[in-house]
C-alpha cells in the first residue's frame, strides 16, 4: 500500500506505476535524503512537535539505513515511487510507529528540493576540484614553454608570433571563470527549502533556520512557494557546465589540430590515443573527440530543462521530475571528461621545433615590421601599406621578410636600417610583446603566478 493511498480505492495501474516512478534515477539522492530527514527529525524534537524518544529512534533508524544502503544490503522498490518514500517505508518497517512521525510538517515537495540542492552543492565541489587540477596541468606545461615560439591565429590563419605558454594560459584563464561561475552558483543555491511544505508552509511551530544551519545552508528560502518550485539553481548549474564544456571543446579542437600530420605541434601519448581497425598507421585523438562530442550532450540537458520549466505555473508540477536525469547525466559527463582530459594534456609531447618552423612561414612578423617603420616616424597606416607591398613582393619570390636584403627593404622605404632584422626575429617579436597579458616571458610568468595563487586559495576549501 502506498503512503499516499488513503483517498484512493483502486490500485495504481502497473503502467502508470512504472511511468510515475523515479526511483530508478533518484536513488542516488539517498544520502542527501537521509541527511535532510535527520535534520528535520531533530528540529521536530527540539520544537516539541514529536517526542524525544521517537526522534532518537528515527535518527538511529536512518543512520542504520544509510549504512545498509552503502553496504549494498538494501534494494529499493518502484512500488514506493521515489527515494523519499522508499526510505520512509523502510524506516517505518524497522522502527514501527515512530517512523510515521518523520513526515510531520514536511512534504515530498520540499524534501526533494532540499535533497537536490544538497546533492548539487556536493557535486560542484567535486567538479571544481577536478577543474583546479586541470588548470594546474596547464600551468605546468606553460612553465616549460614560456619561450616556445609558435604562430598565433585569427580565422585559423597564421597571424602573429606568440608562445605556447600564452596559448595554454588563455585556457587557464577561461577555467578561472568556470570556477567562479560554480562558486556563484553555490552562493545562490545556498538557501534551504525545507519547511516550505507542499507549498504554503505549515501550522506547526517549526524552526527553518535550525534545519538550514544543520544542513550547511546559509539561510532558509524566503518564500515557501518559491522554495518548492525553484529550479533556477539546476538550470544555472547546467548553464555553467555548458560553458565549461564549450571551453573544453575548444581546447579539444585545438588538440586535434595540433596532433594532426598537418600541424605536428604535439604528439599525444599512446595511453591517451586509439588506433584504427583497418589502417595500421593511425593514431587517433579519441579523448579530445569524445570531449568535443559530449559537449552537445550537456547543451541538450540545459535546453531540455529550460524547456521543461518555461511554462510551469507555481508551485510543484510533476513535470519537474524531469530535472534529475539531465543534471545527473551532466554531473557524470563532466566528472568523466575532466580527469581524462587532464591526463591527455599532462602526458602529451610538445614539439617546439614544429611550432617554430610554422612561425617562420606566413609573415606573422608583418605587424612588427609595420611597427618598426612607425617607430621610425612613419604614420602607421602608411607603414601598413608599405609592409603589405613587401609581403606581396615576398610571395612573388617565395621569400620571408627576414630573407630580404637591406637594399630590397630600402626600395620600399629608406627608413629601414640594419636593426630591422632584430625587430623581425620571431623570438624578439614574441618577447617584445610585454603589454599586460601578452606573450613576453615576464608576462606569462606573471600570469602563471596569478593563476597558481587563484588555485591555492581554493584548494581544500
Describe the protein.
- This protein has 19 helices and six strands.
- The chain has helices at residues 14-20, 23-26, 30-46, 52-70, 83-95, 108-143, 164-189, 208-214, 224-229, 232-258, 286-309, 324-347, 352-360, 366-375, 380-397, 406-412, 420-424, 426-431, 441-456, and strands spanning 149-154, 157-163, 191-192, 219-220, 266-267, 349-350.
- The strands form three sheets. A two-stranded antiparallel sheet has the order 1-2.
- It is elongated, with a radius of gyration of 30 Å.
- The two termini are 46 Å apart.
User: Could you say what the CATH architecture of the largest domain is?
Assistant: Up-down Bundle
Tell me the helix content.
55-70%
Shape verdict: elongated
* Average predicted confidence as pLDDT: 95
Largest sheet: 2 strands, antiparallel
Q: Give the class from helix and strand content and strand pairing.
A: mainly alpha
User: Total number of β-strand segments?
Assistant: 6
Task: Tell me the domain tally.
Answer: 3
CA distance, first residue to last residue? 46 Å
Give the name of the CATH superfamily of the largest domain: Fumarase/aspartase (Central domain)
Summarize the structure in short.
By secondary structure, the protein is mostly helical. Helices cover 61% and strands 5% of the residues. It has three domains: 7-104, Fumarase/aspartase (N-terminal domain) (Fumarase C, Chain B, domain 1, Orthogonal Bundle); 109-357, Up-down Bundle (Fumarase C, Chain A, domain 2); 361-456, Orthogonal Bundle (Ribonucleotide Reductase Protein R1, domain 1), CATH 1.10.40.30.
